[in-house]
Amino acid sequence: MISVTIKKGYDLNIKGKPSPDLEDLPKPEYVAALPEKIPFIIPRLLVEKGDKVKIGSLLFEDKRHPEVKFLSPGGGEITDIEFGPRRVVKAIVIRPDETESFETFDSISESDPEKIGREELLHILLRRGVWPFIRELPFRDIAGTDKIPPAIFVISDDGEPFQPDPAVYLKGKKELFEFGIRILSKLTKAVHVVAGADRRSAFPEELKQLITHTCNGPYPAGDAGVILYHTKTASSENRSWYVCAQDVLTIAQSCVSCRKSHGACRKCFY
Known about the structure:
Layout: E1 2-5, E2 31-33, E3 43-45, E4 52-53, E5 58-62, E6 69-71, E7 76-83, E8 89-96, H1 118-127, E9 135-136, E10 141-142, E11 152-155, H2 166-169, H3 174-185, E12 191-196, E13 211-216, H4 224-231, E14 241-244, H5 245-256
Parallel strand pairs: 1-13, 11-12, 11-14, 12-13
Antiparallel strand pairs: 2-8, 3-5, 4-7, 5-6, 7-8, 9-10, 9-14
Helix pairs in contact: 3-5
């Protein structure tokens, strides 16, 4: 196991931490996709106001890379499309139906990743709308589908304020997380799982054997770029990819389910 320790950084003077308790929230009256908040993309709308959509329907794509699609988080009617200056798409607002319908996909069994070719897997991840969770260093753009990265880093704790404890979101998800790692392994030769040294003990016991790197020190010790800087052995590794551990679960769930997974709308995506 590789250990990375940094001495210079910044201690964020913020009190409190996320509660370990999970609760089901009531269904919202409206949901929205926020293209303006997703860095680097130039959205091209694929829907209009008044259209009916399902959960998982295509909403927009990236003009630079049309193969990168973004899906609807709700099933119902598009009640508004908000534009900002210079016609920047700020929000696509959806009023969910009482009974929301889903777009359906072919599921992948846990024994199938090794049988699927890389190009087929790329198509699966793109169509399910989970590809944007995977980011490319050093600029953190959405990973290019035409590239094979030297490595993919799975970041469980990047030190950002109010990040949930891995012990909370990984609890009971051993098989799903391992399945997600196997999927990522089809995209590269090396998948590195990074955990904070002070949080490694909080990692579910059955998943500790997956940890390849630990990080220690003040913010931003757990950042993907920092880990890469301190561990790379060649300049070619500068183009490595990274994905948040929570999003590994979302990617895996999208593959084993016939429906779009309700993934976390997190900073590393948006």
